[in-house]
Structure to design on (1434 residues):
């Protein structure tokens, strides 16, 4: 199976091609059928029923008219003078490469290949056909979506070029401000169906299959250019072209749209399953997380969470500072929602005296007026209690979000009155109003949604979605402070650098590295120690020397000339011909002993898909075991770095835990931001960098990297 | 507000009283009304409509007949010769204590008080009324459920003594094998409603309100005694009487029933909210977790998860070894479910060659036959592909659970055929068959459930529930190995013990404590050091001395007599009159220096509700920060202890991480099990015990506690 993802060298660039895919002036359907049980039959039915206004040409086995349209038996027989933008190809796999080549030669600009039987089969035959198809693209310049895909739709233009059941009549899908782009056809259908009751409609829809040429990332660029689109739902098994995805996500953020992504393959087994499904390369899920976070893409864990997130992200209000007022008819629901609010980074609003007075005046004496408000079972006989509570919290200045949480059912409650009161509040206020209706599928959630009030059927789901909206708002605010890069010298060479050279390079980038001096013999080392003062650390430095500690090539706490001479001689002997160290040696590094408040670790890795990723975490074997690290994808802001450091489990160690002196956290933030901004990191010249440990000194005294392992790589083309 | 929970000294014990509550031979409704908008009207309507076969007496304001039944205006006017088992009281709060006292004097055995306006209001008046009500119970021996509760029902006996909308006609609730017991009325309604489509029916239902006397735990004892009950759903804001709950849960486990619990107040804010709702004391959620786990209670996070768990726990099949076969029509769904299987402790079955051959023979060439199976979009035209896949996995010996995961919708699929095939498989096989139908609320989940096939509408939910079932099965197997207690001497005294005495006590219990010897003067210390050999550790021991390290009262690594004399003199000076240490002193402890593979910590705390809780975790400040500890409630099995230790994030440190010698994990397990089994711990004599560190020696060499801080408490009455 193929894992190559570079675009075929087509003549139509990505922006233009989404125009062809979503707004073709004319279409040819190759493999058309009059039988609605067949895929070619469904494609034609959807194209006609969808109201496609352009010209439709058909190629079919029999060449007879189908549904009132003429057909021919091959691409060659199509009218010579017809300009055809887009082809939809549904022939058996074996015929696809030749067909696509013929379409390309004829000037058709793009083909949607729905046929299966290519790389996804894991067979040699499938791989061969996929290679032939790629060659057809390369030769003729035609761009391809698929193969093994379910096609595209643009309900804003009456285009349905897909056989997905999404477009069967019973779903009643309408045009609206949401787009669904998916690497899986079934998942595209699922996400559309789950979102539908909660959004105004879906305009763009695409299932990209094997992504031989065009992928979700390419389509995203085209989709976010439409001002009518507010939210995009992605289903991803791999990131495809990460730079294209990043650019499209940035464009979405600039124009106030939100991209939601369900990325599967988060575990080792899931990643293997994804590999056999679409040929995706296994990828560290933490890198995917950092990449999506960097580009403002909000991640969902499962289809259900996606359907919950879209309810809040497809509407225009924000969660402000995340201060929630809870209006319930059940103390129990109030407690559950309070737990979930805290678990998802929200907090309960503290009501003003005025709000409390209004609540006391309007609610029964045995009601709870402190947040969470409990109007009690009295709601059975007094439906206007909800309105009383809503009026009070509507004017409360410390409230950003009003959550109406009701666990009621049956004919005992005046549901219509409660619905009307909540909808009326939503019209009067600028606050976000959310309903949590926890009592089975009585259709109330959908009824609120139909009136434009986001509604949830579960306590965790409700607070998780509001928490995500609040977090996204905070992140957008941080984006005003993205630092420019720091132009730094690009180092020569590739491969592991000696510790001496690594430290020189980092110091040259203006990063805080321990005062480390090179001596080439024992006397030189003693002289250097005299300059910097005992105690000192002695290390052997050379471009092939890693794991110094294990090899006895580091000695700390040397307190006098004699001890230094013994250690220096031992290390030079090890490096001499016949000694335990092979390879070139720079010499001996002499460094002052530095003691910090705590040891941290900072680093860079180069991910095959995402490129440079910066890492910050606690130091030591325990932190390593606990994976107490955070990843950040450049460009890295101070705010994001500070949040990442503060979110470390071991963060208290540098923040004055149990009477320790507080560490210089701001200097650590600057080190990470500065490192991420260097030309070398931004341009992908760093294959791996490990600053471990970075000593955090007391507040105001900075940080210092005492060990440096730097591996350089070739610049990206 | 009251936080007391001890039962009023009633004459009817808990087992009998559940009989009165759930199977009363006659009832009086105090506060009856003919107006269905009033609570007293709903109570009467439910009692009549539910078909209650016993005698019904009414007390009402007007004393006129209601719904064809006579009524009187006070308890005193009730017929003298009538034997009345149960009263339901719905008068204003102020009249309740007097009414309940009159009922008690009359010989009524129990009262369900639905009236609000007691402790839950947080007012002095409410607290006073609650105290008066308690006095009425104490004086007359009547038992009370409530106040501020929504009542009880037993659909197996035609009893509905509740005004909850659960029992309004539209819900159509029927009798079945589930019980719902809740500290919140609305949550009882919610849990019932959410479970209903997925279970055969609900027999017992109770909402216990303020739990002045009887609580969920008391009712649970009565409910699990009914052989028809298979599953109990609890909603808890506090544990109530933990011993009663533990005993009832044990009885449930013995009779093959499962208790599911939704316990709220998991966060600090939620716990505060619960306090103002029901007067619950704040409680560490980790202790609640350990308590529920110990007693085989399966915990749900939210109402939705409760409704998902009951689908699997209300049916008889197990998840075996948790090896799952996935049959999907979507590679994407397969990947998502594979991720979730791994995340929830399950694994994908490895199909036998025979299974693979059957799948290859029956499925399209481009289908995926390795687990997860993807029958592909070909299902559109070939509905029998699901059956083909099911037939193959049904006979697969490495498969315990078959998950059919379909993301399909609309009229394109033969849903009836697929439903019939899955139901047929379920009838033919003994394996657990589960459906994951991820495509909106098309009613398919409920259709499968109606045919007895547990079904879910989400990937995470499906695997989370199966994972819980598999875990519960493993836990039940472990229960065969609950150790008996270890009869050990009960120590005298209370309060913090000196380190010397603490070590003597633990050594007396047969636990591995460092060889620690007491000297009373400098010469004595030197003599002891001569016996055990240098290097040694010196400590000052006394019953009021804590935090020795901070006070300089511990010195490690003493290598000779001179250094020992200096240290000993310094410590004795500190303990002399006018020195820095006040309080009595035992003397000087001299101990050998011991080095372990890693430092762990083991301890005991006495929780106010739960009693003794044993703790095991990694040692050191990092582990402390990371809360890398596990709690276990006695009796503690070896298997549970081993699982707890293996689940520690820092477990690799004692398991041969990066070339370290593997530690004696089994000795650590024995220490925890033995400690938990001591008479003193089991009988609640240990207020707090801190063995920190416990050094883990290389495998086969044991563990040794080097610091001991033991605080004893009075025995429980």
């Amino acid at each position: 199976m193929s894992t190559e993802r570079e675009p075929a060298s087509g003549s139509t660039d990505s922006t233009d091609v989404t125009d062809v895919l979503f707004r073709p002036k004319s279409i040819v359907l190759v493999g058309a059928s009059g039988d609605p049980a067949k895929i070619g039959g469904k494609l034609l039915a959807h194209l006609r029923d969808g109201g496609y206004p352009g010209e439709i040409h058909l190629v079919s086995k029999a060449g007879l008219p189908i549904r009132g349209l003429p057909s021919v038996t091959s691409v060659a027989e199509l009218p010579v003078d017809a300009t055809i933008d887009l082809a939809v190809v549904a022939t058996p796999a074996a015929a696809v490469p030749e067909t696509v080549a013929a379409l390309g030669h004829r000037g058709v600009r793009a083909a949607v290949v729905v046929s299966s039987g290519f790389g996804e089969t894991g067979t040699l035959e499938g791989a061969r056909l996929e290679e032939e198809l790629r060659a057809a693209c390369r030769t003729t310049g035609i761009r391809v979506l698929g193969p093994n895909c379910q096609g595209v739709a643009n309900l804003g233009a009456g285009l349905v070029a897909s056989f997905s059941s999404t477009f069967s009549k019973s779903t009643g899908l309408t045009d609206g401000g949401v787009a669904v782009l998916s690497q899986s056809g079934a998942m595209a259908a699922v996400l559309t169906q789950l979102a539908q009751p909660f959004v105004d409609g879906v305009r763009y829809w695409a299932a990209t299959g094997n992504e031989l040429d065009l992928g979700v990332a390419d389509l995203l660029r085209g989709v976010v250019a439409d001002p009518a689109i507010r939210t995009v739902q992605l289903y991803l098994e791999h990131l495809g072209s990460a730079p294209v995805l990043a650019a499209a996500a940035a464009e979405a953020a600039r124009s106030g749209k939100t991209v939601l992504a369900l990325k599967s393959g988060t575990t080792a087994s899931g990643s293997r399953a994804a590999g056999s499904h679409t040929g995706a390369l296994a990828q560290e899920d933490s890198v995917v997380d950092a990449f999506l976070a960097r580009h403002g893409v909000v991640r969902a864990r499962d289809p259900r969470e996606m359907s919950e997130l879209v309810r809040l992200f497809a509407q225009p209000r924000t969660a402000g500072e995340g201060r929630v007022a809870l209006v319930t008819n059940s103390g129990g629901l109030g407690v559950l929602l309070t737990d979930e609010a805290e678990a998802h980074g929200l907090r309960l609003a503290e009501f003003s005296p005025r709000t409390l007075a209004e609540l006391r005046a309007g609610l029964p004496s045995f009601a709870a007026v402190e947040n969470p408000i409990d109007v009690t079972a009295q709601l059975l006989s007094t439906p206007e209690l909800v309105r009383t509570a809503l009026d009070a919290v509507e004017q409360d200045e410390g409230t950003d979000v009003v959550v109406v949480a009701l666990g009621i059912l049956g004919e005992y409650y005046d549901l219509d009155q409660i619905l009307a009161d909540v909808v009326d509040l939503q019209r009067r206020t600028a606050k976000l109003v959310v309903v949590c209706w926890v009592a089975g599928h009585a259709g109330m959630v959908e009824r609120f949604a139909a009136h434009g009030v986001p509604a949830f059927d579960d306590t965790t789901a409700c607070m998780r979605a509001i928490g995500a909206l609040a977090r996204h708002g905070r992140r957008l605010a941080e984006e005003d402070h993205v630092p420019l890069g720091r132009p730094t010298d690009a180092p020569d060479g590739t491969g592991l650098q000696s510790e001496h050279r690594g430290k020189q390079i980092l110091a040259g980038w203006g990063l805080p590295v321990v005062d480390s001096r090179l001596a080439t013999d024992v006397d030189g080392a003693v002289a250097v120690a005299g300059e910097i003062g005992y105690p000192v650390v002695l290390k052997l430095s050379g471009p092939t020397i890693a794991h110094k500690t294990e090899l006895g090539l580091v000695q700390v706490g040397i307190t006098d000339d004699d001890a230094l001479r013994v250690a220096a001689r031992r290390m030079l002997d090890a490096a001499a011909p016949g000694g335990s160290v092979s390879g070139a040696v720079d010499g001996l590094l002499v460094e002052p002993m530095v003691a910090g408040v705590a040891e941290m670790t900072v680093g860079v890795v180069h991910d095959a898909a995402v490129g440079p990723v910066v890492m910050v975490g606690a130091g030591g074997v325990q932190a390593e075991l606990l994976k107490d690290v955070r990843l950040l994808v450049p460009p890295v802001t101070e705010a994001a770095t500070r949040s990442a450091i503060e979110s470390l489990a071991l963060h208290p160690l540098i923040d004055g835990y149990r009477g320790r002196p507080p560490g210089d956290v701001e200097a650590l933030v600057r080190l990470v931001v500065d490192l991420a901004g260097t030309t070398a990191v931004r341009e992908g010249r760093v294959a791996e960098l490990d600053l471990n440990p970075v000593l955090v000194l007391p507040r105001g005294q900075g940080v210092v990297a005492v060990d440096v392992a730097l591996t350089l790589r070739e610049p990206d083309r």
Remarks:
- The mean pLDDT of chain A is 91.
- The domain at 14-313 of chain A is CATH 3.40.50.261 (Rossmann fold).
